Automatic annotation (TrEMBL):
<comment type="similarity">
    <text>Belongs to the bacterial ribosomal protein bS6 family.</text>
</comment>
<dbReference type="InterPro" id="IPR020814">
    <property type="entry name" value="Ribosomal_S6_plastid/chlpt"/>
</dbReference>
<dbReference type="Pfam" id="PF01250">
    <property type="entry name" value="Ribosomal_S6"/>
</dbReference>
<dbReference type="InterPro" id="IPR014717">
    <property type="entry name" value="Transl_elong_EF1B/ribsomal_bS6"/>
</dbReference>
<dbReference type="GO" id="GO:0005840">
    <property type="term" value="C:ribosome"/>
</dbReference>
<keyword id="KW-0689">Ribosomal protein</keyword>
<keyword id="KW-0694">RNA-binding</keyword>
<dbReference type="InterPro" id="IPR000529">
    <property type="entry name" value="Ribosomal_bS6"/>
</dbReference>
<protein>
    <recommendedName>
        <fullName>Small ribosomal subunit protein bS6</fullName>
    </recommendedName>
</protein>
<dbReference type="GO" id="GO:0070181">
    <property type="term" value="F:small ribosomal subunit rRNA binding"/>
</dbReference>
<dbReference type="GO" id="GO:0006412">
    <property type="term" value="P:translation"/>
</dbReference>
<keyword id="KW-0687">Ribonucleoprotein</keyword>
<dbReference type="GO" id="GO:0003735">
    <property type="term" value="F:structural constituent of ribosome"/>
</dbReference>
<dbReference type="InterPro" id="IPR035980">
    <property type="entry name" value="Ribosomal_bS6_sf"/>
</dbReference>
<dbReference type="GO" id="GO:0005737">
    <property type="term" value="C:cytoplasm"/>
</dbReference>
<dbReference type="GO" id="GO:1990904">
    <property type="term" value="C:ribonucleoprotein complex"/>
</dbReference>
<comment type="function">
    <text>Binds together with bS18 to 16S ribosomal RNA.</text>
</comment>
Length: 98
């Protein structure tokens, strides 16, 4: 198996402050680093208005992360993100797919 480049976009609880959001994102990125992957870039966008209501929220805290990892590590990251109640929505895209 070889590592691939991914982009993760997540929307977290709008009640989190920027430090709380960064801590939450960093907590999940340990899944990547523990799985021998690497995190290239973390971009915290902060609180934004949602295009439509999700779980009663009209706003959310956005973060975008570029990382490289094995597919199994990315799957585990996705699984853990979906279990966390502070995460409203996630999307993981494989960047190097042809």
């Amino acid at each position: 198996m070889s590592a691939h480049k991914y982009e993760l976009m997540l929307i977290a609880d709008p009640e989190l402050d920027e430090r709380g959001l960064k801590k939450l994102v960093d907590q999940f990125l340990t899944v990547v680093t523990d799985g021998k992957g690497s995190v290239e870039d973390t971009d915290i966008w902060g609180r934004r208005k949602l295009a439509y209501e999700i779980d009663g929220n009209l706003e959310g805290n956005y973060a975008v992360v570029n990382y490289t990892a094995e597919p199994a590590v990315s799957d585990e990251l996705d699984r853990q993100l979906n279990l966390n109640e502070q995460i409203i929505r996630t999307k993981i895209l494989r960047k190097d797919a042809k």
